[in-house]
Amino acid sequence: MGSLHEDYGAASGPLQATQSAALLESLDSRVAALEEKVRRDPQWGELRRLRAEACKEAWWAAPCPDTPWTFTAQALLLLLCLKRCMALLAAGYCPPPPDSRAAEAAPPLSPDTLSVSQEKTVRVALQLVVTLGLCPYLLPGVGLPLSHRTEFSALVQHVVSPGSTSGATRRLYATCTVLLELAQHPSLGSLLLTRHLGDLLAGLCQLAFGPTKRKGDQAELQEERTGLTEEERTRCREALRGLLDRVYQPLVVRELLILQGGSKQASRSSGCEGECRLAPAPAWLRRLCGQLLSERLRRPGGVQAVVRGILEGAGAGAAGGSDAEAAAADWRKCDSVARILSSCPQQSLSLEDYYRQVCPQILQLLLIQDQLVARQFQRVAITTVLTMAREHPQQAEKYLLGPMLEPLLRCLEGAELSPEDLPAEAVLVEEEELTGCVENVFKVYLADHAPSAMLLGSLQPALGVLFSLCCFTKQNVSFLRAPCQEILLWFLEKCEREAALSVLEGLARLGGAVRFLHPLCQFRVASEGGAVVALKEAVRDEEEALYQKVSSEQWQLEQLVDLLSLSQGSGLAGDFFLHCLKELTHVAEQGGPKMESVLLSGKSPVNLEQCCNPSLEPQERELRVLQLVAMLCESISDALFTDVLQVVEFVAATLKRACVSGGVVEAQTLSMAMGLVAAFLGGAVQLKSADFAALKRLVPLLEEVSRAHPEPVIQELAADLRVTICTHGAFSPESVCSAAQSTLGKREAGETARKAAADVDPAERPQGKALEPTVTLPPMPTESSAAAGPAATAPGRLPAGKLVAHSLPGSRALQELLLSAYDPDIPSRAAALRSLSRLVEQRDPEVLKIRDKLLKIFVESLDHEDSFVYLSAIQGVVLLSDAFPEEVLPPLLARYESSPPGAQEAWPVETRMKAGEALMRSTRALGDLVFSYRDRLIHVFLRGARDPEAAVRASSLSNLGELCQILRFQLGSVIHEVTLCLAAIVKSDHEAAVRRAAVHVVVLLLRGLSESATEVLRDVLLDLYRLLKFVMQCEGDEVTVLHAQLALEELDAIVRRFLFPPPSLEKKIVVLP
Known about the structure:
Residues 297-568 form the TANGO6 HEAT repeat domain. This protein is an all-alpha fold.
């Protein structure tokens, strides 16, 4: 074997020069040299004996004039001898008993183990055998051509002549037979199959299924032409099947795909030089590979094997890394795999049978946890499910979507449950099962941006359980909350609006076909942060059961309103609100449910309850609608309507209610609704012709209100609005203008804010966008507010924490935020400041243009006494200082140390303390960049340490400690001034809080420097130590002494690490010259 290795290396020179004659001469001479060594060298006696035994069974080893085949035969003989020798060594090996004294030592190797150099020699020999004895005898188009491999392979193609068809087939049969025998050995089989599986499969496919005759051949000439008997072909088929079943399946899939070859269209269109494409395979081989791939696919675990086999070439294998990321980005390859999986192969009995076998395996791809391949597998699985749902919806719903949703459908209302057969509190759906179900639904359904009606219809039965699970997760911490919420929002957004309203009506328990969790089931918190579905514990107290039911329904209504608040951009919340108002109007038109008169005498209480119960359900529905409308108005009234048409629908519904029954409550709501119409007509919104066409629907209703309503003010306003709408705003009476101004909220308290917003440079505003007021819907009056009278509301003030332009960075929204920043209402002002801070954090370009005015607003808000306001202002100052420190720090430093302009007294202590807090947070946010402002900050803090106010002195020292902790090595010579200041304060200040702050500065300084303290504080370390000892001996305040003790402990640990560094276990290797 070593001689063959030498031959290969010696022949490399002429091979590279493509000298065919030199190659043949080299092979011939080396075979002769091998024969001479085996015959004469006494050391090779055992090899000579094994070789003679192998020659007796090897009919293909007979001498012949073909030099390449002679070389191949000798290599095959040596490989057979090696395999038999290794088998003998392994059979006679008896491993020694384990040594307890060396338990961690590696076990001894088996005597048949190959060394690294020996493995390299065997690989070379196998490569020579495959190149010289297998590939040249393959038919055109079978396997990878030799010309597309190495230079040596291209040379072999010109040297080896296959000869007659029968002779070539016999040689191919001999090579494949020997290689199959070698593959039975574990060590040799791994070396062979990892590199040459594709060539071996190509040879076996040709021998077992290759063409048996050509056109014009007679049947009796078939065996003569093929060179194989039917028994040998059958043996090759069995060997091929056994090899395919034994080898790693993804590797088999990849090699079969290569054997299948490229398409004829791709081959004709590949005209680019240097681009290597697979040549088209023969038709019989393409059919065979397709059949074998279909068999691989339908096996247990076959889908995963096919996906791995295709994607591992793109980096989704064990290597992972950057290749895995590249494979995830190659969505075309993932989509191609999905198309393969979704197409039923011709070999399948039926489409139903194929889906029954493959669909469970596709669902398993969604549950793979391996991070290296999870992204690719999930992409393939999701695309496959969606493709199957589009092409074959019935089968997909039966075998894919149904099993995916089964854990949710198992516990629906109306499901067959037998509690008597289950123990108390038995778990129906385990945590892992429920989590996998929700995650799979989230991955699959939300990936389809244009879902079909079948896909939406399959999810609709599980919406009630998903909503119940979402409500349950809101009561505790669970990772299932976000996916459940996103699934519900996706369904409501993608389905038709009528279907979405019907689902919302069902979730609110107003009717519809939504089915909730089974009454006997409940969700329980699981151990891993998820949830389980279990049977309820029996409640004996009927009042307790009723309380649980009512509180649960109330909680679900609140969560439904929260869910609608997340979908405000789509207009669904406004449409559902209008739907509820129409429902109230319908109830008002019917006059409410009436109980039929019955004869009560002589009836038992049970019969009396049965008589009264039919009238309770409509009343319960009406109360639930009223409650839902009140909750919608209270929670999301300011952003309920997204367009003019929705507002028109709302006003129309309100006018209809007023026409049906005009009362105090309706009058109050009516004045607000007509105020909205007046605001629209007064210029709050730029109305178009389509908007006026929608407004004309209100004209008959306004005319009826102007005639039938008992209050003259509302009659006059309704008549004037009707005139204004009919004239398209050309004529607007004074009452309409007054109502518009009242709705828009012209308040004197906002004049200062308007001036601040008007200071914005017009050139900085986007062109074509005027600063217009925003109309918001005020909270609707409820039954409890009926006594407030029909006074018109003034919705100009923004509700607490609910800003109209919360997420819109436009100039109009920015003006609203600037207005609200001066709002006397504390929650509204704080919410505006936080919204401005978020825009600064997001680096909004329009906000950054007015950063000077924002800084002025934030700094002025520091004077506010409420912590909600000034803490929000501090946050805004910190975010501005992070972006523009040169512009923010000077005003803060001035406010911290000096007096107001033109005033004799200094700033109030509270204001200076707030400025100090802002400076400290800004210093932390700047981090290492604070070095540029070191001198100014230290100067201000050292001056503040001498302030007459004790609180300011303590604040300055605290800020000084934070600054020193951040600066570390960048302190420089300033450390001497800091040390002298601390020593003076500790020894002379009368306030204990100030002395505590001074000693705490030392603690922060030592913690920040850590091991570097001995270098940075080299000149003052002794002074600091003496100062701390002085505090320990002379200080009377216990907290100050505690700080000093902590500082001494830090200093002791630093010095110990410096003097006695921990030993490092290092091994030094010195290379001697």
